[in-house]
Design a protein that fits this description.
CATH class of the largest domain: Mainly Alpha
Radius of gyration: 21 Å
Strand order of the largest sheet: 1-4-5-8
Largest sheet: 4 strands, mixed
Mean pLDDT: 96
Shape: globular
CATH topology of the largest domain: Butyryl-CoA Dehydrogenase, subunit A, domain 3
Low-confidence stretches: none
CATH superfamily of the largest domain: Butyryl-CoA Dehydrogenase, subunit A, domain 3
Strand content: 5-15%
Oligomer: single chain
Order of helices and strands: HHHHHEHEEEHEEEEHHEEHHHH
Bound molecules: flavin-adenine dinucleotide
Number of strands: 10
Structural class: alpha+beta
CATH architecture of the largest domain: Up-down Bundle
Number of domains: 3
């Protein structure tokens, strides 16, 4: 656990609870769940129920809804700690904690009263966000002047939605979603789409394929399918045609949370590398006494510390924008952390030698997990371009 930013006793107590939760509930089960054939079986309702019992599932909700109202900095520490245990577990809660934060700000009073108390009480309550489509992915990050394929036509009292989103984290597990749908024909997605609140049991809304992923398997990702699905006017979040403003206004910490998830995997790789380097003897001494290995561990630590500092800065400034928020902080921390994690995971493999290739060491799972955020939450190359546009173009 990183000590320097833990400034209050509440933060310390939260992080100690999460650390215990990871040790007792996540680590003993993650390898077995990761190995399930059916991707849906990799998800553990039991882990979610246990997280609910300790208040983790709802910690970003305000006290009014029974939560702790944790700020973004503390939440990022929790997300990192969870990912030291398992990336998928971290991601299911990162999504839920983040969307709960967003919903408290972006939903109107009636919507909050309709959704949040039920979500707070449901021990399996999870949240999801649906933007990506087979044809539109990097297109919305940059954004390209094309419309979403998922569209909604105006009708009496609401909208009729048709189309499909894919790759959605918690797609088949969430009780509520924020979904971005094209409501204005002939306009690009960034100008003609609307954010809708979608309930899982809504008629005309169903779950398609649950994706069979290479890593991050304890989280489920799925298709969201809309077939003549009626969405009432009361489910419009913000203004019609203004969906991307909802994104821009209420998501500043999103990228840093993604960075915190992948950073946790890098920490697990570092811990494993250190343990192995102390134990494994070759050339007449433990690996850690070989200069190259020792220096590599120091470089790993540098990458971890620098990525964490960047994530923490982004989270703190997302909550305190008047102190110097700049838009690249909403794009680059995940990019840095995921590149660091990928490097550290391959070095972890190298330090373990041939043993690292054997499943029983746990290294192959970490390498598969470490690849997840090179693309998730935006392909890194696309995010560099987005940052460059903020810096030199917009
Ligand atoms: C594990 C996981 C979880 C996810 N969870 C969610 C979720 O919860 N909700 C959600 O909405 N989405 C989710 N996504 C989708 C994710 O945001 C997209 O996968 C991501 O944006 C990349 O889209 P793509 O895979 O279609 O790649 P593409 O957009 O097809 O990109 C392919 C390649 O082309 C490059 N490229 C694309 N456009 C340009 C351009 N204009 N200029 C230069 N290069 C370009 C990219 O950098 C990349 O290298 C998830 C994805 C993953 C893998």
């Amino acid at each position: 656990m990183e000590e320097i930013f833990i400034v209050t006793e509440d933060q310390r107590a939260i992080l100690e609870t999460v650390h215990r939760f990871v040790e007792e509930e996540v680590l003993p089960r993650s390898a077995e769940l990761d190995a399930m054939d059916d991707p849906a079986d990799c998800y553990s309702e039991d882990i979610v129920a246990k997280a609910h019992e300790v208040g983790l599932r709802t910690m970003t909700l305000s006290e009014e809804y029974g939560g702790l109202g944790t700020d973004s900095l503390t939440t990022s520490m929790v997300i990192e700690e969870l990912a030291v245990g398992d990336l998928g577990v971290s991601v299911i809660f990162a999504q839920t904690l983040k969307i709960a934060q967003i919903m408290q700000k972006a939903l109107n009073e009636e919507q909050r009263a309709r959704v949040l108390p039920g979500f707070a009480e449901d021990p399996q309550g999870m949240l999801g966000i649906g933007i990506t489509e087979p044809d539109n992915a990097s297109n919305y990050f940059l954004p390209h002047p094309t419309p979403f394929r998922t569209t909604a036509e105006k009708t009496d009292g609401g909208w009729i939605a048709n189309g499909m989103k894919h790759f959605i984290s918690n797609g088949n597990r969430a009780s509520h979603y924020l979904v971005f749908i094209q409501t204005e024909k002939g306009k690009p997605l960034a100008e003609g789409s609307t954010c809708f609140l979608v309930e899982r049991d809504r008629e005309g809304f169903s779950i398609g394929t649950v994706h069979d992923k290479m890593g991050e398997r304890l989280a489920n990702n799925a298709e969201l399918v809309f077939q003549d699905c009626f969405l009432p006017d009361e489910n419009v979040v913000g203004d019609v045609g203004d969906g991307f403003n909802v994104l821009a206004k209420f998501f500043p910490q999103s990228n840093a949370y993604a960075g915190a998830s992948i950073l946790g995997v890098a920490v697990a790789c570092y811990n494993k590398s250190l343990e192995w380097a102390q134990m494994r003897v070759q050339g007449g001494k433990p690996l850690i006494e070989h200069d190259k290995i020792r220096a590599q561990l120091a470089e790993m630590k540098m990458l971890l510390d620098a990525s964490r500092s960047y994530i923490h800065r982004a989270c703190y400034l997302a909550d305190n924008q008047h102190l110097g928020w700049d838009k690249t902080l909403g794009v680059l921390p995940k990019t840095m952390a995921s590149q660091a994690a990928w490097k550290i995971a391959t070095w972890c493999l190298e330090i373990h030698g041939g043993h690292g290739y054997m499943k029983e060491t746990g290294v192959p799972k970490l390498v598969r997990d470490a690849a997840a955020f090179l693309h998730s939450d935006g392909v890194n190359h696309t995010l560099f371009l987005k940052a460059a546009n903020f810096m030199y173009k917009d």
